[in-house]
Amino acid sequence: MAPVTGAPERVEETISAAERRQLGVHYTNEAFILRTIRPLFLDALEASLAAARTAAALHAFVERLLGLRFLDPSCGAGNFLVVAYREVRRLEIEALVRLRARGTALPRRVRLDQFCGIEIDARAADAARIALEQEAEGHDIVGPRDEAPRITVGNALRIDWNDVLPAERASFVFGNPPFVGMAWMSPEQQEDRRLAFEPLDTRGIHAGRLDYAAAFIARAITYGAGHPVRFAFVATNSLTQGEQARSLGPLLCRYGVRIDFAHRTFHWASASRGKANVHVVVLGFSRGDTGPRRIFDYPDPRGEPVERAAANINVYLADGPDVVPRKRKTPLGAGYPAGTKGNQPTDGGHLVVEPADHAAVMADPVARRYVRRYLQASAFLWDEPRHCLWLEGVGPEEITASPVLQRRIEAIRRLRLASRTPSVRDLADKPWLFTQIRQPSVRYLALPEVSSENRRVIPAAFLDPEVIAGNKLITFPGADDWLFGMLQSSMFMAWVRAVAGRMKSDISIAPHLTYCTFPFPEPDAEGRRRVEEAARAVLDARRTFPGKSLGELYDPRGMPKELARAHDGLDRAVEVLFEGRTPLRTEADRLRALFERYAVLSLAGRA
């Protein structure tokens, strides 16, 4: 293929949307690149230059720059390398200017061959070379023929990075690995991932849960073994949440890798046409102790970060201990109800009474006695008129007397007999019953299993036992106002966002992992009373909007002010139970307190 000329952003337009999806390509604007390379090396270099007050110190600084080597193993059209070269060159020029002012001139300079890249697409690799050469020309420098950027065309997960830049000479490795989730990987990419993890001991780690970008972290661990290389990669935030975090965290600990800095979740929008809109993080990591740890938090995911020092950064990007919550069958706190999924019909829709069929079913004098309100997650959130036939206790003579029941039950029997699942076939002899029955016999609290990550909370509500919970709801039988308050608090939501899985971008709750691992506080009577009062205030605020569904009340685009104020009061009442008298201000603060509490319970043998 002929070389593609032009700036990287123009080259990016030549790759189709389908190719981008397959390759996981999402291009980076300069501001986002600086979020990666500033804490990786640029801030430290600027501080060193500012501290260089003598000719000898400035000379040493220039020599240090000349000894640095940079590698981007997924360099694309060279965006990261171009910005890194430009910034290092800027610092060198400033040092040289200050040296000349002291009567010293140095002919040596930063070279293009200090900047190395690997790129699978030949077009993008050509663009990276051209972009770096053009950047050098922009500094009025014409390099000798043997000083060219070292861009290798190849699959970075199958070639040895040492062949591009020996690890003993490498200083910093950074970039934007492809964003390809587990469900989207091609067979070739799955093999790429397998090969990347093959040199590592992954016993008990479930590397198959990790996405394509994690394979670059695996390569980095192998590449940096025994060498003081520092790394920083952009990744989707799902890598530091849920199942992926539970696999990545133990892997990093096993190989002595520490997270040096992290940009917590922020919104990514690339500058190219058909731009990606995803939420990403930046992970900076190395082996050994390489200085203070830094967390960059985003109160507004589309805004600027707020930096804070951290004692430790765990895989959830929290300033907390390196603990990974494990699945539990019972809640971590004493006296809490079990959280279980609702009832599973496996009925082909024949036990569900759709609105269009409701009148006909209610006209049957037998069937109408068994019609119950039936809520799956959508009907729960949006107050949809859904019903089902709940036929526990129905007699054979009643079925015989009801054409509606006969027709529907026979359809279910045939469907279950044709199932490939033995347990479903076994229940073909009781086709009038749900296949999994977990209906509470008392008033219960319900949460949708899946909810938008943009809502302030996952809305919960109390339901009577006559309301049948579908398998897309999580139920908490006998729950009280205290538990309602805890599950509707910012603390619980911080925990959920960290440890829960995802269905696309939505939060997906698994009770044994999200609820049962939550490190409940142990309040005194007054602390408990405040939470219960605040929880009732939330319920009272909801009642002031009759006819409004939970989905409408918790619309992220416009939550009613009265309800928002009630939640503010609830958050304060819950947060002080974790942090004493001081409410927690940010998600990072909440996670720190939660993981510290979880670690305490772990040491006590309760987690």
From TrEMBL:
Pfam family, one: MmeI_C
SUPFAM superfamilies: S-adenosyl-L-methionine-dependent methyltransferases
Domain of life: Bacteria
InterPro entries reported for this sequence: DNA_methylase_N6_adenine_CS (IPR002052), MmeI_C (IPR046818), MmeI_Mtase (IPR046816), MmeI_TRD (IPR046820), N4_N6_ade-DNA_methylase (IPR050953), SAM-dependent_MTases_sf (IPR029063)
Domain MmeI-like C-terminal: 528-601
Catalytic activity of the protein: a 2'-deoxyadenosine in DNA + S-adenosyl-L-methionine = an N(6)-methyl-2'-deoxyadenosine in DNA + S-adenosyl-L-homocysteine + H(+)
EC nos: 2.1.1.72
Domain MmeI-like target recognition: 320-522
Sequence ranges assigned to domain MmeI-like DNA-methyltransferase in this UniProt record: 53-296
PROSITE patterns on file: N6_MTASE
Top-level enzyme category: transferase
Keywords: Methyltransferase, Transferase
PANTHER family attached to this UniProt entry: DNA METHYLTRANSFERASE A (PTHR33841:SF1), DNA METHYLTRANSFERASE YEEA-RELATED (PTHR33841)
Protein's recorded name: site-specific DNA-methyltransferase (adenine-specific)
Annotated source species: Polyangium sorediatum
Lineage: Bacteria, Pseudomonadati, Myxococcota, Polyangia, Polyangiales
